[in-house]
Structure formats: C-alpha cells, structure tokens
Amino acid sequence: MRPDRVLEKVIKKINIQSEYKPFVEEYTASLLSEFNGKIHSIYMCGSIPKGTAKPFESDADFTIVCERPEDIDYDRVSCLKDQMLQKYPFVTKVDTVICSLDDVRSKPNEWGFWIKIICVCIHGTDIGEEVPPILISPEFILDLNSDTQEAVERVRGFLSNATDDTLKSRYTKGYSKKLIRALYSLVLEDTVVWQDDISKMKNGILEYCTIDSALVDYLYACYLDSHVDVEEFLGNAEEVYRYIEKVLTALAASRTTPSEI
Description:
Blueprint: H1 21-34, E1 39-45, H2 47-50, E2 60-66, H3 74-87, E3 94-100, H4 101-106, H5 108-118, E4 120-124, H6 138-144, H7 148-161, H8 165-185, H9 188-191, H10 198-208, H11 213-224, H12 230-254
Parallel strand pairs: 2-3
Antiparallel strand pairs: 1-2, 1-4
C-alpha cells in the first residue's frame, strides 16, 4: 500500500473556540440525556471543531453513531436543535446525521470515510479507529459517489418546489456544495488529499478537472451568494451533474474485474 495514496484525517486536533464550547457541550449533553444509553459516540466536522467558525456565518455539523438508528427519534433531535438555535443564535444551522456502528464497519468507503477522515470524535470511543486505511482508488471514488444521484435528485426537487426565498437560498447553497464535493472527488487521484474547504476544492477542480471552468466558478459564486435566479441555477447545475455522471460511468466501465484478467 503506497502511503501517498492513503487519505489522512482532515481535522487532526479539536480546537473549538471558547464562544462555541458552551453550545457544543450543551447540545452533546442534551443528546446523551434524551437518548440515554442508546448513543455509542458523537462526532463533529467543519469549522467549529477546526476552530475557524464565524458567528452568524458558520453552521454546526454533528454525527451520532449508535447500535440502532431507529432508537434515535428524529423529531426529538429536531426539537433539541431548535432549542439550541434559540439559545445560541450565532449558530446559523445545526445538522445532525445518524448512522449505525454496522454502517461504519461494513461501508469503509462511505460511512467509514465520513467518520474516519471527515469527522472528529467529541464523545465516546472513536469507531473511526476501527476503519482500515482508506486508499484513493477508482473503487473508492465510485463508492463515495454511490448516493450522489439520490442526493442531487432530492435537493433538486426541494429547490424546484420551494416558494420561500430563504429556502431557495438554502437549497441553492446546499446543491452547489454537493456538486462541488462530487467534482472534487473525481480529481482525488490527482490531489491525493481530501479538502473540506470549498475554495480549496474549487482550486483543485480547476487545476485537474476537464469540466468548463466557467461552470465551476458559477457554482462557487452561488455557494458564496445563493440569492440567484433558480431556473438559471438549475440549468447550470444539471449540466454539471451530467458531467459528473459521465465521468463516473466511464470510471466504472474502466475497472477490470478478476474475471477479465
């Protein structure tokens, strides 16, 4: 295994700023109290654990790992998030993903990647340490994008049907981010490092990806300022997704199976 092809953890050390510590500690304690004994571990990713969060700009991203995700009531989690947002208004949004221990162990290139590479453990035993080293390969890139079509179709539907300007802006930003992440995954064999900074992702895409650079710049601009014409955005986003789909299809076709050797 070539060490230069193994992905390294994005956040190597937790560095939560003092103004965010009460929020993180209270939300974590609330989750543990509400779902007593049902949570194995809790993780964060993004600017807050990195120590680069900006009040009224940065959101909070949590992941709960448990034995049985069905034991975690999503409606109750939403209530807890709403309570935190009222108490800590400088946090723009709280996202909380839930996955099972089995997901992390059985899907190393999907949930394993998320926990081991993207997230840092803030409570419990880090299940990411059980995930084998993640090698950058066509198989990994395909696994990483296994849910891209579903995610794109879902957010496209939300955006197409949104009537509220706030929701339109939120879905446009989320759609832009999803497409930029997918594009960046396509050049991982060139960059050999996972970036969680969107601007660095954009630069990597522009350097190594064959897609029209104007589309990349447009997506990035929409991520920064998502108050744009929805129809124009959907048209450009569809063109980007068709490119992603074409590359993934070619990547899948190029793999040599054992029976073909």
